[in-house]
Amino acid sequence: MIWLQRLLCLLQVQALVQAIEEHIKLRKGQKILIHGGSGGIGSLAIQLAKLHEAYVATTVSTSNIELAKQLGADEVIDYKTNDFTSIIKDYDAVLVAAAEELGNSYKVLKKGGTLVSIVGNADENLAKEHGITAITQMTQTSTSQLKRLGELVDSGKIKPLIDKIFTLNNAKEAFDYFEQKHPRGKVVIKIK
Ligand SMILES: NC(=O)c1ccc[n+]([C@@H]2O[C@H](COP(=O)([O-])OP(=O)(O)OC[C@H]3O[C@@H](n4cnc5c(N)ncnc54)[C@H](OP(=O)(O)O)[C@@H]3O)[C@@H](O)[C@H]2O)c1
To answer: Which of 50, 134, 153, 159 has the fewest CB atoms within 10 Å distance of its CB?
Structure first.
């Protein structure tokens, strides 16, 4: 199973590393808000940010609050019932992995903070207005980072969130499931 988990999350974790380590340069004690903490990307981002000993807040829907706590989030905001902008203030960084939350994310950063969007274009004008850096990330792959991240997965320091595994013969059912069931994390088709 380890090889499967490793394959599954390597590319996604690459997106996180680029955001959290290269763009944000997250350090111990800093505060980061991660939108979409119950998704494939967000669930890994929470774990990576905690490995950096940051304080992590995240937005998830009601049914995923417990999951986000188990992943290590210090503060979990239910986006269905709460407005995160009334709770989060003066953060060092925001990682936007849920497009709906991009527009309001500029205002929760302190001056000099960093916003990384992996879901759409960040707004340079809004960034200037708030005195922050806003980055639109298109993830690049790097062999050395992938190798190191593979080790993080193999050692269990980062665990991918898998909703359900299908065989290749059941690929159609896998796509139906993905479209109809609102999976938590990833739906996997096992090739071998
Ligand atoms: N730029 C890049 O290089 C790059 C790389 C990889 C992925 N992406 C993009 O990143 C996004 C996330 O990917 P993913 O694989 O993590 O998707 P995913 O597994 O489908 O997760 C999306 C998550 O967003 C959450 N969500 C929905 N509406 C929300 C809201 N208003 N506030 C907060 N969370 C909300 C959902 O949480 P609930 O289930 O709790 O509702 C869901 O778990 C996608 O748009 C993908 O295309 C970009």
So the answer is: 159
In a domain, 154, yes or no: no
Distance from C-alpha of 29 to C-alpha of 73, rounded to nearest angstrom: 14
What is the C-alpha to C-alpha distance for residues 21 and 188, in angstroms, rounded to an integer? 27
- State whether 119 and 169 are in the same domain: no
Whole-prediction pTM? 0.89
Closest residue by Cα to atom 45, ligand 1, is 119
106 shares a domain with 171: no
Dihedral sign for Cα atoms in the order 11, 182, 101, 91: negative
Output the CA–CA distances (angstroms, integers) from residue 152 to 51, 114, 175, in the order listed. 10, 25, 29
Residue 145 is assigned to a structural domain of this protein: no
Q: Does 8 score more than 60 pLDDT?
A: no
Backbone torsions φ then ψ of 186, nearest 5 degrees: -100, 145
| Span 41-86, pLDDT tens digits | 899 899 999 999 999 999 999 999 999 999 999 999 999 999 999 9
Q: Is the CB of 59 under 6 A from ligand 1?
A: yes
**Ligand 1: which of 65, 67, 94, 119 to mutate, most ligand atoms within 8 Å of CB?**
119
Q: What is the pLDDT of residue 36?
A: 95
Report pLDDT for 187: 87
Range of the domain at 180: 162-192
